[in-house]
Protein: Porphobilinogen deaminase, chloroplastic
Organism: Linum tenue
Amino acid sequence: METLTSLCASQTLVSHTARPMPISASGSSVSANGYAYSLNSRAFLPRKQRMSIIKASVAVEQQTEKPKVALVRIGTRGSPLALAQAHETREKLMAAHSELAEEGAIEIVIIKTTGDKILSQPLADIGGKGLFTKEIDEALINGDIDIAVHSMKDVPTYLPEQTILPCNMEREDVRDAFISLNASSLADLAAGSIIGTASLRRKSQILHRYPSLKVVENFRGNVQTRLRKLNEGVVHATLLALAGLRRLNMTENVTATLSIDDMLPAVAQGAIGIACRTNDDKMAEYLASLNHEETRLAVTCERAFLETLDGSCRTPIAGYASRDENGDCLFKGLVASPDGTRVLETSRKGRYALDDMILMGKDAGKELLSRAGPGFFNS
């Protein structure tokens, strides 16, 4: 027999029983595998038993350590796309701040929103603004999370009190993707073909150009669910944001990418926004390191346009601000009747600067409101 001089000190066998016993530790002794061992004296045990006791002791110590409190708790919806965006946020925070790169420093908290709970009705019928953000905002205000990650096109033009949204990460491709098993484009679909979408913006633009097609409005669910319905033959085609497919590494499903001229995107499409509490300077500092200013300015311009129109889920509205080859801002805006029979478009060009871009968005919105006239959105 060998003398045990282990990492946890010399030990002496003091009792034994034939029944297995749970591992435990108390004071200067350890119990494991039916043996009780003193940590203050010597023992003569076979090597295999010595190693078992050492491992048991280490395991006990690890189990009794206090769990590490996360420095940043990220609130997000639980869909695959929302989680992909939350993980992208976490990775960028870890890369920018060494203290956040440690294990357990960032926690992702999944929150179910109203928009996730009610899938049987069209978005336009259940409500309006904040369907995918309300519960996350409440968790932020209540201190259950530290930052909230949103798809910016889901964020109402107003923010709840006690919150700010100081960060837009660099925008993904803003275009829409056409997906079909038997057609190469919208123009290639036979008359009477059914397209599934949850977006009035897409519906109105499709029907405006292709009135012979049919659009199923309540085509809801996450990306995977919509693609499954397409594969099952529920619809002949669907349109999804290319940004989401890219973030999910699912671009192999794309049949064709629609140009901006063919399908003007939703306001803030492809942009991720991150909110924190108004008085949380530490989180604001973290988020400042992730902000992409060109994206933030473009989104601000588009949201000024949307706010002026007072757009809701019942209003087909599209808007896109981009930087042109000369470095200026080019804004394109659109409103449509829900049935697609009327589409009104406008554009603006000006300096790529915050105040100028806000004015462009507001001015474009006022113009389209004037041109549309009363009752336009009820047709």
Summary: The chain has a mean pLDDT of 84. The first strand starts at residue 2 and ends at 3.
